[in-house]
């Protein structure tokens, strides 16, 4: 049956922060349909692909009328008639049509929505769930989830410097069990927060609002929450941090909102190394501009804002030895094909790979399928509340169930070999 693209439509929907976002809908000549919604980051890397926003006063400047218009006026004509199964050719056409290095003309929000919608349409044409279509008959693992307990940083008015305080359960044995353990920890953390004073709700990705006096206060509370949940910290449940250091630093060093004032790059690095020694920390994202990590091989060091889902940047970071894992966000680079290339570059180096949501999300569950079908090994979605997050976790439960007896939980195998060895 023909998988040729018949029509491409854009529309404005709303994201989890109540801001406009772009949905693309692709219909094939066969009648198969694919749809996808663009997510949006708040703590962005300097080299990310750029969303097209209308500016002005309407919707606080976040309108996407121009991005939607570009889908109808330009993108639809450029990819009509192409074979949706040839994702690389479609994405190449999108990049060439845009003509900028960072999707600034048509907007990464328009381009990513169309690129992912084409992928969904191709899977629909093959009458396969997206993860299975992507796996193409190869055995793939159920990813290890990385789940936020406290939000912070740019997602919580800078109430803590650290952006994400998360947990990982590499020994859970299944995705379902990892979520159950996380739920125990999340509730226990809520009780500890309640004991501190009136609960102040949740941050952008659903983690408890960070009502803390210092970053260490948050780390202490999270460690206590794990223990109070009935699970063992550093055995069943590990801590994972996203420092998002580029949000804290400039050429002169790092400014901490809660702790003591300003730190040099070396002091910031030493602080993080100290945390890794004191707390059951297994993974740290975007730590600081440090080349030499004294925590060495024991900890997963994830590049997010420093890699921006670019295969070239993964290569360069690999030479410099600054990370052992890459965060993969399709909208950070703009197309499915380019994101897959960054993931391949990471996996080829023996790194871990984490398919990730953004802080601005929707009910779109594409990333659950990408993490599974690409066999990334890890999935980062945000916290354990709010339906734009739960939609992804729930989709993973459906995928794990569909795999039945063949389901293999990535667990410790999700990490670069030296990190995995520490869990054996
Ligand atoms: P962002 O945050 O979507 O706001 O960039 C997510 C992250 O830093 O991992
Ligand atoms: Zn990050």
Name its key features.
424 residues, 3-stranded antiparallel sheet, single chain, binds zinc ion, binds 2-phosphoglycolic acid, TIM Barrel, 2 domains
Explain this structure to me?
The protein has helices at 65-79, 87-98, 108-125, 130-135, 175-196, 215-228, 265-278, 311-320, 330-333, 336-348, 366-373, 387-403, 417-423; strands at 5-14, 20-28, 33-37, 144-151, 164-168, 238-242, 249-250, 253-255, 262-263, 281-285, 300-303, 325-328, 352-356, 377-383. It is of the alpha/beta class. The chain folds into two domains: 5-127, Enolase-like, N-terminal domain (Enolase-like, domain 1, 2-Layer Sandwich), CATH 3.30.390.10; 144-421, TIM Barrel (Alpha-Beta Barrel), CATH 3.20.20. The strands form three sheets. The protein has an eight-stranded mixed barrel, surrounded by six helices. Strand 7 and strand 8 (253-255) form a beta hairpin. The chain is globular. The site of 2-phosphoglycolic acid (PGA) has 11 residues, from loops.
